[in-house]
Design goal:
Elements lengths: L1 E7 L1 H4 L9 H11 L4 E7 L5 H11 L6 E5 L2 H6 L3 H18 L4 E5 L11 H16 L2 E3 L22 H15 L6
Parallel strand pairs: 1-2, 1-3, 3-4, 4-5
Organism: Pontibacter locisalis
Protein name: Arylesterase
Pfam families: Lipase_GDSL_2
């Protein structure tokens, strides 16, 4: 059985929901239904930043990784961490995975922050994910929260975290990219 490692934050962890409703769990079910022999490891941690993910990555790389899904950055954006710093952290995570599992296929989940944030930050933040995906020649999900962010009926009362229905959409966005990387 091959491993798919998801390194993420509260979106990946399924904040406020039973673990079975988090999108990595939904994808595990989909893999099973479609006859794929993969095990998803959910290394989602609520509140995590790219720096935090980089710091805790080694302990998740003890087993071989066939596919690595990098879904960090939302908390960097919320905290206003400079785009350059976020880029460097994500690049270091990608580099570590390539060294540990050279055959691993890597997927980067893009994040965005609302354009209401003043100045160039929102644009720089959105662009950094696209540029990293291109520079590293890795698979890319343009915006993990596409169609979910700002939609009240798809989010928990806090308005930030997807509910069970919102998580299904995150799973759909991820599956669109993931399915092309799988081997029977």
């Amino acid at each position: 059985m091959k491993n798919i490692l998801f390194l993420g934050d509260s979106l990946t962890a399924g904040y406020g929901l039973p673990a079975a409703q988090a999108y990595p769990s939904l994808l595990q079910e989909k893999l099973k239904q479609e006859g794929y022999n993969y095990r998803i490891i959910n290394a989602g941690l609520s509140g995590d930043t790219t720096a935090g993910g980089l710091h805790r990555l080694d302990r998740w790389l003890k087993e071989p990784v066939a596919i690595f899904v990098l879904a960090l950055g939302a908390n960097d954006g919320i905290r206003g961490i400079p785009a350059r710093e976020t880029t460097q952290n994500l690049q270091q995570i990608i580099d570590k995975v390539k060294i540990h599992s050279p055959e691993a296929k890597i997927v980067l989940s893009g994040m965005e922050i609302p354009d209401i944030v003043p100045g160039r930050y929102a644009a720089e933040f959105r662009k950094l994910f696209r540029e990293l995906a291109l520079e590293n020649n890795i698979s890319f999900i343009p915006f993990l929260l596409e169609g979910v962010v700002g939609v009240r009926q798809l989010n928990l009362p806090d308005g930030l975290h997807p509910n069970a229905e919102g998580q299904k959409i995150l799973a759909k966005h991820t599956w669109t990219v993931l399915k092309d990387l799988l081997e029977k």
